[in-house]
UniProtKB/TrEMBL annotation, chain A:
Belongs to the adaptor complexes large subunit family. Keywords: Membrane, Protein transport, Transport. The keyword Transport applies. Adaptins are components of the adaptor complexes which link clathrin to receptors in coated vesicles. Clathrin-associated protein complexes are believed to interact with the cytoplasmic tails of membrane proteins, leading to their selection and concentration. One of its GO terms (molecular function) is clathrin binding. Residues 25-553 form the Clathrin/coatomer adaptor adaptin-like N-terminal domain. Its main location: membrane. SUPFAM superfamilies: ARM repeat (SSF48371). Gene3D superfamilies: Leucine-rich Repeat Variant. Residues 704-725 are annotated as: Disordered. Residues 708-725 have a biased composition (Polar residues). This is AP complex subunit beta. It is found in: Endomembrane system.
UniProtKB/TrEMBL annotation, chain B:
GO terms for biological process: endosome to plasma membrane protein transport; Golgi to endosome transport; Golgi to plasma membrane protein transport; Golgi to vacuole transport; retrograde transport, endosome to Golgi. It holds the Pfam family Adap_comp_sub. Its main location: membrane. Residues 175-442 form the MHD domain. It is found in: Cytoplasmic vesicle membrane. Belongs to the adaptor complexes medium subunit family. This is MHD domain-containing protein. InterPro entries: Adaptor_comp_med_subunit, AP2_Mu_C_sf, Clathrin_mu, Clathrin_mu_CS, Longin-like_dom_sf, MHD. The keyword Protein biosynthesis does not apply. The gene is NDAI0E03680. The keyword Kinase does not apply. Keywords: Cytoplasmic vesicle, Membrane, Protein transport, Transport. The lineage of its organism: Eukaryota, Fungi, Dikarya, Ascomycota, Saccharomycotina. It comes from the Eukaryota. One of its GO terms (cellular component) is AP-1 adaptor complex.
Length: 725, 444
């Protein structure tokens, strides 16, 4: 403690400001005066104000030279501010940064490691080739710096440089330095070097052989794992999950070495560890009861007490893992029960997991879940209720006992009785799915049909295409259970043109199936509407085909065949990944692709934007250029845009997008053709149920049912169809 | 692997940003607000990751701001990004006290500085506040001082990149103390009839260390005893099943990064060099079945179109010598109910119309006691049909019980050993049980 009088003096000195203040208006002229003021405090204030203006999006690039004058200072905070300013304009006005190059080079040799870092970090971000040329010596030096803090920054700069100028980066040979950094004694340097190499590999896989580098360093990775920061651990675990163990023993060893991290407090570390374990698991001899499975299970459970965003990631990943190891969480059902304050997106994922998780051989567990789902289906958030109702039928079909399904049905009926229109869609779909699972159960069919028959105007209750389509299918499937069949069909027929494709298809098929029970005019009218008025291609083609079948002389038998066809037995309504997709997803746990269930088939190399680098001019010229720019801008006081770079950027992007869209379109068109063609030859299968059972399955079935009915005709049909195109 | 971090206001408009890479257009963030608005219009399901034009927006919400990370790489480790975003909030919380729009605007300089240090080229770097505070200081450096003691000017502490990256050397206290708090939060979901649908104990061991030098600590808890002890006290019936679970429960421990995980893995000993000041040493979770500590016997009668009657009997089912404090029972009532009328024996009751609930507060609730209340609210004579569906919120209960842990966890010893200084030290231990964020009773 200094004596009191000194303290008072100090206080006064600090609080009474002789230096002129900068107002909050942030006028450029005022800022400029402030920046060159004789009072250090004012200068600093002015820099702060300048940065504030920059933060709110104002263009303060004209102040560049004045700000730069303040760079040579011993005050670290001020230096940081100037660097911040420079870095920001490195993005939009790279030319201006050339003015600062000398300071960078000096600062890169500063005794303070913080300043060395700042200099090198900023330099490697500026997209001016001439500056990049100056980077060689500082970068080399900092890569070998005594201070690990500087080294860990320098290794990342290599990746930055690589992105800006690949050739230069290779020419300078810093990649070799980077590789040898993997052997650094400091864990953080190792981790950053790994991350940096991964980035480089991502931009251009042909430059460094990441796989073999990881291979060579597995031992180091495992050794440093216990000693580094949480983020470094994630990076290193990430690298380990890219490595394929040579044999079962090594895989087991890796698993043993990483499992301790399943208990790390950072959920991302836990997930990264899980990924490593899962990658190595198949090579070891494990069984579902082994300790490692229990550890995995409890690690996954622990992720459920993390923040909701993390839970979301965890739930999506659990979904993937469950498909590979279905037993893994079998005892932990209750963990996934919904908490009333969970965000909606978590709730929906939880229901999905609950239904996958429940053991279909365990009546008690299934009944418990059933009551839980019933509870959910009486909540008030519509999306949640809808998912819960879907869940009810999924659970019922999974358990698959008639008694149990009856219970499910009772709940659905209770829900419908609550007289809420918003849930009728989901209830209707759920009931149809149950019936498709138990087609033989006539009691249930009549029970369901009597409820649905009681709806006077189903078209008002039902809103979605799928629900309407299901309803209409039911009319065709159990016509004898609908006393007011004709009225119902007519309601839908009247609105035919307003319906979407699934419902249109379903109406068409149903009317054809019921043509003997309905007045002839109905059939006539549907065929006309479907051939002339609809805009749906599929529907029109189907209608034309039906029409031809019906108008043939000996059509009775053929039509009979057509009508008999029922959709395939519904085994499950829970969708599964294809084995190929599953394996790919398992390798990408924890990534964004794992959230969308879309693995990156081929890792697209990123376009490195060299074009942005200002090239081919002498440094003097550039400096003149920069000064001219500034001068002209200062004169006009107009916020000029250095638009070139940006525009180029966007053009490029647009180009990319366009081509991808085009190819997509092409593909989808082809798909459409395929679909149509398949339809033409098979006729019997209602398309409407495709969405329920997964498209691939659907198409298989289509192909499996060669058109018995119209074998003789199919050729001509096909010909007709082909003519159509 | 984020390309940029943005702080956005409640509408999704950017307040402050830091770009780490130039592989996304500057304008990418402008789309965020409209994406958010579009989604909100469509439905109430708003996942924390949005895609537009190959750009991924990963975001979390904190008070009135969004924290958004933007990337265009699908291989980005999304778990890491979310963990990092939460870490930013933590770090800023330590620097700014509250993290909200206002404080973000006021402190742009320090935030820029921090963002620079927390992440480099999209790779998270140093997030340990205690270390950051040594070289990123909020008060600006006095010019004169900096010039004089040039050598002392902010430098990254050498410990930053060492294996003990969370503690620097040379910390000194006159009195060496370590305070240990064991806090157990109980989450429980019950039906009105008293059936327990789900229960779990979330425990945290917090330490406040005021110790000099580089002390090495060893914590002993009644490790194997924890769960078996619980059995003998509560229910011996499902002995077998609980025993089986023991192992799993134990493994649900999570440790602060200072704990030597491999040592715990092999020898089951918790050893660590603590960071200075407050931190969470470990947390654990138990899903053994427990009795409700505060039970509310609810009876709700709705006389539609006229009034609603609520009777509640609350009981503290804890040991006689324990006392629950700050008990709050939040009972939902229909949104359109009004003119409340209360009768109660203890505490205070008020109607909270903005939450559509009545709140019964009891400052002190001794074990074994039973208090009751009755409330009556009027309902409008004309009511919509959907009202019944709306009112599905559960009864929420909040409480604290000091000097008591539900799991029976006990600290056997906390050995503090500083090899160089060899000082005398004082460990203090405190236990508390409280309600978690989901201690609820479902109404039928």
């Amino acid at each position: 403690m200094p004596p009191l009088d000194k303290r008072i003096k100090k206080f006064l000195k600090n609080s009474i400001r002789i230096a002129p203040k900068i107002s909050d208006k942030g006028e450029l002229a005022e800022l400029r005066t402030g920046l060159v003021s004789q009072y250090p405090q004012t200068r600093k204030d002015a820099i702060k104000k300048t940065i504030q203006q920059m933060t709110v999006g104002k263009d303060v690039s004209t102040l560049f030279p004045d700000v730069l004058k303040n760079m040579a200072t011993n005050d670290i905070e001020q230096k940081k501010l100037v660097y911040l300013y420079v870095m920001n304009y490195a993005e939009t006005h790279p030319e201006l940064c050339i003015l600062a190059v000398n300071t960078f080079v000096t600062d890169a040799q500063d005794p303070n490691p913080l300043i060395r870092c700042m200099a090198i970090r900023t330099m490697s971000m500026i997209r001016v080739e001439k500056i990049l040329e100056y980077i060689e010596i500082p970068l080399r030096r900092t890569l070998q710096d005594d201070n690990p803090y500087v080294r860990k920054t320098a290794v990342i700069c290599v990746a930055k440089l690589f992105q800006l100028n690949k050739e230069l980066c290779i020419e300078l040979g810093v990649l070799e330095d980077l590789k040898s950094s993997l052997d650094d004694e400091n864990p953080m340097v190792v981790a950053n070097a790994t991350a940096s190499l991964a980035e480089i590999n991502d931009m251009d896989p042909s430059i460094v052989d990441l796989k073999s580098l990881i291979q060579l360093h597995v031992k180091q990775f495992l050794a440093v794992l216990n000693e580094c920061t949480e983020w470094a651990r994630i990076t290193i675990l990430g690298a380990l999950s890219e490595y394929s163990a040579r044999d079962g023993l090594e895989a087991q060893d890796i698993i043993d070495r990483v499992t301790a991290h399943l208990q790390h407090v950072n959920p991302a570390v836990v997930l990264a560890t899980i990924k490593v374990v899962i990658k190595n698991l198949p090579q070891t001899d494990f069984n579902p009861n082994s300790l490692i499975m229990k550890k995995l299970s409890s690690a996954l459970v622990s992720l459920m007490s993390s923040p909701p965003e993390m839970q979301y990631v965890a739930l999506k990943n659990i979904r993937i893992i469950l498909e590979k190891y279905p037993e893994i969480l079998s005892k932990e059902l209750r963990i996934f029960y919904i908490k009333f304050n969970d965000p909606l997106y978590v709730k929906l994922e939880k229901i999905d997991i609950l239904i996958r998780l429940v053991d279909k051989g365990n009546l008690k567990q299934c009944s418990l879940l059933l009551t839980e789902l019933k509870e959910y289906s009486m909540e008030f958030e519509p999306e949640f209720v809808s998912r819960a109702i879907q869940g009810l039928s999924q659970l019922g079909i999974k358990f698959s006992g008639e008694k149990f399904l009856q219970k499910v049905l009772d709940i659905l009926i209770e829900l419908i009785d609550r007289d809420q229109n918003s849930i009728k869609d989901d209830c209707c779909i759920a009931m149809c799915n149950i019936l498709r699972h138990l087609p033989e159960n006539t009691d249930m069919a009549s029970q369901i049909c009597s409820i649905l028959n009681a709806w006077e105007s189903p078209d008002e209750y039902l809103r979605t295409d799928v629900a309407k389509c299901n309803y209409v299918w039911l009319l065709g499937q159990y016509p004898e259970n609908f006393p007011s069949l004709k009225a119902k069909v007519n309601i839908f027929l009247e609105l035919f043109n307003q319906e979407e494709s699934l419902t249109q298809t379903s109406i068409l098929i149903t009317v054809v199936r019921l043509h003997s029970k309905l007045p002839g005019s109905t059939l006539q009218s549907v065929l006309e509407k479907a051939t002339k008025e609809t805009t749906e291609l599929d529907v029109r083609d189907m209608a034309i085909m039906y029409w031809r079948c019906l108008s043939m002389d000996d059509s009775e038998e053929l039509v009979e065949e057509l009508c008999k066809i029922i959709p395939p037995h519904l085994e499950t309504t829970i969708d599964q990944f294809s084995p190929d997709l599953l394996e790919k997803l398992l390798l990408e746990l924890g990534t964004i692709s794992s959230i969308y269930f879309k693995p990156q088939a081929n890792r697209r190399t990123r376009d490195v934007s060299y074009e942005n680098v200002v090239k081919g001019k002498e440094i003097n010229e550039l400096q003149d250029l920069a000064k001219n720019e500034l001068a002209s801008k200062a004169n006009e006081e107009v916020l000029l845009d250095f638009g070139d770079d940006d525009e180029e950027d966007e053009d490029e992007l647009d180009g990319d997008n366009l081509t991808s869209v085009r190819t997509n379109k092409k593909y989808s068109a082809l798909d459409d053709l395929d679909d149509l063609f398949n339809f033409g030859t098979t006729t019997g299968k209602p398309k409407s149920f495709k969405d329920d059972i997964g498209i691939s399955q659907g198409i298989n079935e289509l192909n499996l049912r060669p058109s018995v009915d119209s074998n003789s005709r199919s050729q001509s049909n096909t010909q007709e169809l082909l003519d159509l195109f | 692997m984020a390309s940029a971090i943005y702080f956005c206001d409640i509408k999704g408009r950017p307040l402050l940003s830091r770009k780490y890479r130039d592989d996304i257009p500057l304008t990418a963030i402008d789309k965020f607000a409209s994406l958010l608005a579009d989604l909100e219009e469509e439905s109430s399901v708003i996942p924390p990751c949005l895609t537009y034009n190959n750009t991924q927006y990963l975001f979390i919400q904190h008070s009135d701001i969004y924290l958004v990370a933007i990337t265009n790489l699908l291989r980005t480790n999304i778990a890491e990004v979310f963990a990092f975003l939460y870490k930013i909030i933590d770090v800023l919380g330590d620097y700014l006290k509250t993290v909200e729009e206002e404080s973000i605007r006021d402190n742009y300089v320090i935030i820029y500085e921090l963002l620079d240090e927390l992440m480099d080229y999209g790779i998270p770097q140093i997030t340990e506040t205690k270390m950051l505070k040594q070289y990123i200081t909020q008060k600006s450096f006095k010019l004169v001082k900096a010039a004089k003691k040039k050598q002392n000017a902010a430098r990254p502490p050498s410990a930053l990149t060492d294996s003990v990256s969370w503690r620097s050397e040379g910390i000194k206290y006159k009195k060496n103390e370590a305070f240990l708090d064991i806090v157990e939060s109980i989450n429980m979901l019950m039906t009105q009839k008293g059936q327990i649908l789900r229960s779990e104990i979330l425990g945290v061991v917090k330490i406040k260390s005021r110790l000099s030098g580089m002390p090495d600590l060893k914590l002993g808890i009644n490790d194997k005893g924890i769960f078996s002890k619980q059995l003998t006290e509560d229910d011996t019936n499902n002995n077998a099943t609980s025993k089986k679970q023991n192992k799993i429960e134990l493994e649900d421990l999570k440790f602060h990064q200072c704990v030597r995980l491999s040592k715990f893995e092999t020898e089951k000993i918790i050893t660590f060099i603590p960071p200075d000041g407050d931190f969470e040493l470990m947390n654990y979770r138990l899903s053994t079945s427990i009795k409700p500590l505060i039970w509310c016997d609810m009876n709700v009668q709705v006389h539609s179109n006229s009034r609603i009657e609520i009777h509640c009997r609350a009981k503290a089912q804890i040991k006689k010598k324990s006392t629950a404090t700050n008990v709050e029972i939040l009972i939902p009532v229909p949104e359109d109910a009004d003119t409340p009328n209360f009768k109660y024996s203890h505490g205070s009751i008020k109607w909270v119309p903005e939450k559509s609930a009545i709140l019964w507060k009891i400052r002190s609730f001794p074990g074994g006691k039973e208090y009751s209340m009755a409330a009556e609210l009027c309902l409008p004579s004309t009511s919509s049909k959907s009202e019944e569906v709306q009112n599905k919120k559960p009864v929420q209960v909040k409480f604290q019980i000091p000097y008591f842990t539900t799991s029976g966890i006990q600290v056997r010893y906390l050995k503090i050993n500083e090899p160089k200084l060899q000082y005398k030290s004082y460990p203090w231990v405190r236990y508390i049980t409280q309600s978690g964020d989901d201690y609820t009773i479902r109404l039928i």
